[in-house]
Amino acid sequence: MRNRWLVPAGAAAAVLVIAACGSSTTGNGGSGGSGGSGSTPAASAQAASSGSTLKTMKVGSATVLANSKGLTLYWFVPDTPTKSNCNGSCIHYWPPVTGPATAGSGVTGHLGTITRSNGAKQATWDGHPLYTYVGDTGPGMDKGNGLNISGGVWHAIILTGHAAASPKASSGGGGGYGY
What we know:
The protein is 17% helix and 22% strand. By secondary structure, the protein is of the alpha+beta class. It has a 4-stranded mixed sheet, with no helix packed on it. Strands 3-9-8 form a 3-stranded antiparallel sheet, with no helix packed on it. It has a 3-stranded antiparallel sheet with strand order 5-6-7, with no helix packed on it.
């Protein structure tokens, strides 16, 4: 008689474990307690892409294109000069830079805009739609450079010099950002 309760109790425990494993979190995108602000990736994405004056920033021995806050700008290999291929959950981690953008001191190249599938304007540089990366939490960072996630490879826009060799390129992972 006592064993009848073991099966329902075991089934209830299994349901709880499965539910816990399937839950999602918000917060800082699962960055492992790196001292993030606790904001959601979407809020971070919006803050990271704001500002329309582009400037240059030193990252190691390279000079990269950056937004007005000094965050490194990236281009996505699958994009074309007229179309962004970063949509859906991709834009939460790779926020598009809103256009039009203006060139600050030292910025060379052709600036333009494309119209995204949702009708928003996105800034371009030499035919590459521009993005920031939520993993870059401050000026002078390029954590997104060389990552192979969200359907393709991401590159920092390097104006002069060379980016450091990056072993970061992989088909999975992504700093815990669940792509």
